Amino acid sequence: MSDQKPVSHEATLALHAGAGQRHIGEPASAPPMMATSFFTHPDAVGFSANDLNEAVPHFYTRWSNPTLELLETRLAALEGGEAALSFASGMAAICALILNRLGSGDHLVLSNVCYAGVAELAHDILPKHGIAATPVDTSNPEAVAAAMRPNTKLVHIETPANPILRLSDVAAVAEIARSGGAELSVDATIATPLGMKPLALGADYVVHSLTKYICGHGDALGGAVIGRQDRIAALRKGSLIHLGGSLSPFAAWLILRGMETLAPRMVMHEANARRVEAFLADHPKVRSVFWPGSSRHPQHNLAARQMRNFSGLLAFSAKADGGALARRLAERLQVVSYAVSLGKTKSLLFYIPTDDILRSSFHLEGEEACSYRDWAGDGVFRFSVGLEDQDDIIADLDQALG
Asked: Which CATH code is given to the segment(s) 262-401?
């Protein structure tokens, strides 16, 4: 038997966690994909998902699958969690978690600036199920504490927050949630498991859109929730199986392939973003730029305390008409693509008008709307800095900005 120490470094975990013991003749490349929709044996499991327990083998891919299991094991290892559960998208993961942990009469506190789909879920869908939601500026722990109610069961934060990269103190919010008898979930998609460990900071769940940095190639949708073994088992049985948001084995295989380069990619993303942030900060057409790794970010000290990689996403606003500048960039950019999403190998930039997102997704008014405008101006350019050569990215921005 080998006396080799267990693998513990992230770059190696992203390649090998969950792979199991090697056997002669097995491929040393990416694991094979199990694309079958079902596995069968008359005594394997009862017909109902209510019979599901830890001893049940793979039976039906909507319940579990070997390729998905490998992805989940690898994600749990990267996050330092006991277990993980994969879903068809990041939104499917968040919806499953919220609907599993909350029911009619319960209350949710969440970041008032977050992924637009989550904000719209809270505003438009949850009230139909009798779930009250209070969006607050979770970068202010006092605001989180003030929003807590006796029936608050879950606090959900996103840090860094999409699209303005505002940060929330995970440890501080975790203490507030725990004191109020609630659980904390953290969407750490932008930070990635290599940038931040929410579970180690006190969170009960960490959520990822696997579509973004973890996959890295923009060719597969996926989501995941990581946490304690018993909670993830309950989530599988209660939400994955019955709500049906299961990840396809092929998408899982693509995400596993992307994870193999996560560590070197994040080093490059961060280095490129650092250089681009410095260029934009000095550009005469740029009003402000936000990237957690820069000392110019108003919460850089918090970022340095709870993040180990500052990722490749930055945001900037224009001094003049942002909409006009967006049209100019869309027409003139050649290396950077004017497109939505983030976390891809290629650089992506997209303009988000403030009036539009305040009205359609965030529903912010008064001081909260003013706070958002302080960051975003009339609109924010969300810039996912890719892996192209730094000089080429900057030259493209320079000629397009004019």
From this structure: 3.90.1150.10
Task: Answer whether CATH 3.40.640.10 is correct for domain 10-259.
Answer: yes
- Domain extent listing, the chain: 10-259, 262-401
Whether 10-259 shares its CATH topology with 262-401 is answered: no
42 vs 52: CA distance, rounded Å: 15
Instruction: List the chain pLDDT tens, one digit each, 402 residues.
Output: 334 445 578 888 888 887 766 666 666 666 666 666 666 565 666 555 666 666 666 666 667 788 999 999 999 999 999 999 999 999 999 999 999 999 999 999 999 999 999 999 999 999 999 999 999 999 999 999 999 999 999 999 999 999 999 999 999 999 999 999 999 999 999 999 999 999 999 999 999 999 999 999 999 999 999 999 999 999 998 888 888 889 999 999 999 999 999 999 999 999 999 999 999 999 999 999 999 999 999 999 999 999 999 999 999 999 999 999 999 999 999 999 999 999 999 999 999 999 999 998 999 889 999 999 999 999 999 999 999 999 999 999 999 998
- Residue 143 three-state SS: helix
CA torsion angle 84 88 94 95 (round to 10): -130
**87 has which bridge partners?**
223
